[in-house]
Write a structure and sequence with these properties.
single chain, alpha/beta, Conserved hypothetical protein from pyrococcus furiosus pfu- 392566-001, ParB domain, two-stranded antiparallel sheet
Length: about 180
C-alpha cells in the first residue's frame, strides 16, 4: 500500500454498510469495495462536507477574532524569503508524519493551514481520492519539500487533505530537501 494510515472511525462505519448498488447503464451489481459504489462515494462526500465545514467555521471564527491571516496556508516562498539556498538534495521516498506538513510550494489558496478544502470546486476530485482511500486502494506518494523539520507540498494537496480528514498519521512522500545558509 502506498499510503499508511491509522484505523479510523470512518472505515469502521463504512464496513458496517453492506448494501449492493446498481449501475444505471447495465443494472449490474457494483462491487461493495468499488470506488464507484454510491454508498462509498456518499460516505466520502460526507467526509468532504465535514472538512469543508471545518474550513468555513475556522475562517468565520478567525474573521471575528481578527486573525484570518493565521488561518491561511503558509507558502514555501514566504518561508524562504530573504534566505539564501545552500543546497538541494533528493532524499527519495519516505514515510512522513502528516502533522509535519505545514504548507504548500504554490497552492495556498485551495486549502487552509490544516488542509481543509476552502472551495466547493475541489469536491469531485477530493471525493474521488477519498473513495479510493476508503477502499484501501494505494495512491502515488505525494511530493514534498523539506525545509528544516517542516514539509511543504509540491504535488498531492488533495491526497494530504483527504489523509488528514480520515485521521491518518503518516503518508508516503518523495522528499526534496532544501538547505538554507
Amino acid at each position: 500500500m502506498a499510503i499508511w494510515k491509522m484505523y479510523s472511525k470512518h472505515k469502521k462505519e463504512l464496513l458496517t454498510q453492506r448494501r449492493p448498488a446498481m449501475t444505471t447503464n447495465s443494472l449490474m451489481m457494483v462491487s461493495e469495495r468499488s470506488p464507484q459504489n454510491p454508498h462509498i462515494r456518499l460516505h466520502a462526500g460526507a467526509i468532504f462536507n465535514e472538512a469543508r465545514g471545518r474550513a468555513i467555521f475556522g475562517n468565520l471564527k478567525a474573521l471575528v477574532l481578527g486573525s484570518l491571516a493565521k488561518r491561511a496556508m503558509p507558502s514555501l516562498s514566504s518561508r524562504l524569503s530573504g534566505r539564501e539556498l545552500a543546497g538541494r538534495h533528493e532524499l527519495g521516498q519516505r514515510t512522513i508524519e502528516i502533522e509535519r506538513i505545514v504548507g504548500s510550494e504554490s497552492r495556498v489558496a485551495g486549502f487552509d493551514r490544516h488542509f481543509n478544502p476552502l472551495s466547493e470546486s475541489t469536491r469531485e476530485r477530493w471525493v474521488s481520492i477519498a473513495a479510493l482511500c476508503l477502499n484501501d486502494i494505494g495512491l502515488p506518494a505525494v511530493d514534498l519539500i523539506q525545509v528544516g523539520e517542516e514539509y511543504y507540498v509540491r504535488d498531492g494537496h488533495h491526497r494530504v487533505s483527504v489523509a488528514r480528514a480520515l485521521g491518518w498519521a503518516f503518508i508516503d512522500a518523495r522528499i526534496t530537501k532544501l538547505e538554507l545558509k
